[in-house]
Specification:
The protein is α+β, with helices and mostly antiparallel strands. Helices cover about 30% and strands about 50% of the residues. Strand 1 (about 40-55) and strand 2 form a beta hairpin.
Amino acid sequence: MTDNALTLAQDRLLRPGGLDTAGLERTFGQLLGPGVDFGDLYFQHARRESWSVEDGIVKDGAHSIEQGVGVRAIAGEKTGFAYSDDI
């Protein structure tokens, strides 16, 4: 299961953004610099589709893809957040 999840994440999130696991390791190395106790990256990719049907006839349809990345860094009692809609 873990291999499948990693492959899916690489295919949907990392590769389209020109990223790889080595790049993420470098980013964590920079994020977890002096004074930072904890840090994490949160990637998201969501795809939605909806249809409105009346009397067997499709009246409306919508499709959206949302994706982005969030960064959190904790230093002592301080927490910093950043995010981007682009990966």
